[in-house]
Write a structure and sequence with these properties.
The protein is globular. The longest helix is centred in the C-terminal third of the chain and has 18 residues. The chain contains three helices and eleven strands; from the N terminus they run ββββββββββααβα. The strands form three sheets. Strands 1-2-3-10-5-8 form a six-stranded antiparallel β-sheet, with helices on one face. The chain folds into two domains: 102 residues, Jelly Rolls; 67 residues, no CATH class. It has 183 residues and is α+β, with helices and mostly antiparallel strands.
């Protein structure tokens, strides 16, 4: 059986994700490739509350920022493991070369669904993470609050904020733009 390749290309952002198959929240892991444009910032600081995220640099230079550690510069063949509950982010450390990484998230849970829905919404609305509509972002964060958190804001405040945004998304119909969370 041939594996279906799912490509989410935020070309205006210079970021691309390639998943190999549909989201499977029961899988032991989700393994995918990510390309980050030269000099691109990557994701904002965030926390996976119950998942381990491992970054394997295939080409380019990654600067990993993991709470409690100095910035770690990784090149091809090097990896870093971020345990659950640890604030982290990363950037492309090269102004000239794309960063290609293989990322493994264990267990898979809803990670692929979350990233896919966020990227599809951003692509529909302008092709950058900044174009992700607030109500859709709030809905996604509310639905995935058991697994994903943003850095710099206490969890209780995130629950209040994202709960309110999710409710408004439901009331205005914006929630229909987000596929149901797999179960």
């Amino acid at each position: 059986m041939e594996t279906r390749e799912i490509i989410l290309d935020l070309e205006n952002e210079g970021e691309k994700f390639t998943f190999y198959g549909d989201p499977d929240h029961t899988a032991p892991s989700v393994d995918f490739h990510s390309v980050l444009a030269p000099g691109a910032r990557g994701p904002e600081p965030h926390i996976h509350t119950v998942q381990t995220e491992t970054f394997h640099v295939i080409s380019g230079t990654m600067i990993a920022r993991v709470k409690g550690q100095e910035d770690v510069v990784l090149g091809p063949g090097e990896s870093i493991v971020v345990p659950p509950g640890v604030l982290h982010s990363f950037t492309n450390g090269s102004p000239d070369e794309p960063l290609l990484t293989r990322i493994v998230v264990e267990p898979a849970l809803d990670f692929q669904w979350y990233i896919s829905e966020a990227a599809k919404s951003a692509i529909r609305n302008g092709g950058t993470w900044k174009s992700l509509p607030l109500l859709e972002a709030g809905r996604l964060m509310w639905l995935s609050r058991d697994q994903n958190r943003i850095g710099g804001l206490p969890f209780f405040a995130q629950d209040i904020l994202f709960g309110a945004l999710s409710l408004v998304a439901l009331m205005t119909g914006r929630a229909r733009n987000i596929a149901p969370k797999p179960r």
